[in-house]
Amino acid sequence: MDNQFSFSNNTRNDFINESQNKVFDILVIGGGVTGAGIALDAVSRGLSVCLIEKHDYAWGTSSRSTKLIHGGLRYLKQLEIALVKEVGTERAIVHKNARNLVLPEKMLLPIVENGSLGYYSTSAALLVYDFLAGVKNKERRKMLSKSSTLKAEPLLDSKKVSGGGLYYEYRTDDARLTIEIIKKAVELGAVCINYAKFISPIYENHRFAGGEIKDNISNETFEIRAKQVVNATGPWVDLIRKKDNSLKGKRLQLTKGVHIVLPYKILSIKQAVYFDVEEDDRMVFAIPRHGKTYVGTTDTVYSENIDEPHASKDDVEYILRATNNMFPKLNITISQVESSWAGLRPLIYEDGKSPSELSRKDEIFESESGLLSIAGGKLTGYRKMAERIVNKVVELHNIKTALKCKTENLQLHGSDFSSNKEIRNLIIKLTSENTKHKITVEVIKEWIYRYGTDTPIIIDFYKQFLSKNKEPELCFHLAEMQYCLENECVLKLEDFYIRRSSKMYFDIKKINPYIKEVAELVKAFHKYSDEEIAEQIERVKYYEKLALTFKS
Ligand code: FAD
Hints:
Helix 13 packs across helix 14 (472-487). The chain has 552 residues and is α+β, with helices and mostly antiparallel strands. The chain is globular, with a radius of gyration of 23 Å. Strands 3, 4, 5, 6, 11, 12, 13, 14, 15 and 16 form a ten-stranded mixed beta sheet that branches. Strands 1, 2, 7, 8, 9, 10, 17 and 18 form an eight-stranded mixed beta sheet that branches. It has 18 helices and 18 strands. It has helices at residues 9-19, 33-44, 74-77, 81-97, 119-133, 146-152, 174-187, 237-243, 313-326, 382-396, 420-434, 441-451, 455-466, 472-487, 493-500, 503-506, 515-526, 530-548; strands at 23-29, 49-52, 68-69, 103-112, 142-144, 161-171, 191-193, 196-204, 207-215, 221-231, 252-263, 272-276, 283-289, 292-296, 300-301, 339-348, 362-366, 372-376. Bound molecules: flavin-adenine dinucleotide (FAD). Flavin-adenine dinucleotide binds at residues 29-35, 52-55, 59-62, 64-68, 70, 197-198, 232-236, 257, 297, 343-346, 377-380.
């Protein structure tokens, strides 16, 4: 199969060379969803843009969220009407532009005694929510009686539940959404470099004009210049502001959010449930996904090592208490937890407010040297955040050639589907073409919901590995990795297991049986030494341990 798009280590090397010989319109620091969105918005308007990320794309918060494209129902309670309207409306746009990655998810909101909302307030809240977000008829909220709620979710406590509300959100894979935005930006001409850390600012005439960058693979340093530097480093935003001596006024407040993953049979809910936590005034999600159910999240002030947040025993016990309280027949224990992750919310500090009360709105800070920093916000609102900041850059630098924002109608890489039916048809076609090659419909679905229209490329790789008499399950892993090496700039094993395939969270037991062969493939592709690849295997094992070690 002809694969014209390529985004590999070779592309990265070309990008490093190219980036040193020009002055970009914009240099974006940070390859999370915010930075990725800015790069795509800018390049699609005809601006030249370079993005640098110190680790892998989506290495920060953008691979550790609840993975929902949602309007934030609970923000209604805080009367954040404009925020709910904006992110609520964005849901349908993000879905339209990445139908295989952003899937409608039916949510059940059980109404319980002493819960945060009663029957009529839930009904009114969901109605306002649908109205603000302009939800289409088919997906509007439906109120349920007690018996219908228990029929919809038999695991709920019949003594506590008095009714329920059904409404729609969208489920995604945050890291995959980020990488597909990056790939689209690269396709349109953006220069994106992972494992490239911003070290220090370069000033020209007292203006922030670029940075000294360290290539975290070769350990060499180089310089990148731009008319405008944008700091989109999420939880690290204040560290960059500090380097610019502009950490004044508003600051970030980081809060930690933890999720746990359970085998589906342990928490076999029929749809996603958004439920009250009895011991405080919060709500958590339980979301079924690919044979697992994940539950979260927590919200606690965080001041430890930003680079490696992880779930503590207290975090996991809090989630389990809330879950067992809502589904009392289950009595889930910590030993049944299969994996976990923890992320940091880069929120804007407000005096006297608890973590859950802090606004999720984004804000732009402009320093005296001209550095623009963007913080706060949601995965869901990435496109509008990008539009706002690029508008600002265009205005500040009076860039007359810049086009209007186009991303509302820009499909992401691999998401060239005009309807959900087209996705189903592709699944049927590829399954029927490949049954003789021992590829099941489950694998085809998994790939299409991850890689979209690029799935045939992976199937071709699979067939090549299978023809060398390798076991089919191993070939699935090798084929997916080969695709990611050539098209998603995977430089390390952990990039693949954590952020491209999510196996670390949703299929952790499938990593070890195949890691040696997969590592051999990576070693040959990147010409790594024995020591280098052994170190990477150790790193994956370390992350496996981190996902399952809950310290007091
Ligand atoms: P990040 O993703 O953290 O990206 C910043 C990047 O900058 C990092 O990758 C980092 O490595 C890089 N960087 C840092 N310093 C440097 C440097 N010196 N040089 C180069 N690169 C650097 N939002 C939703 O819409 N839906 C949800 O369901 C949802 N759930 C959430 C659950 C939790 C627990 C949390 C914590 C957040 C959740 N959010 C959700 C919010 C959402 O995840 C974040 O708003 C979003 O991911 C932030 O993206 P970002 O790009 O700003 O930051």
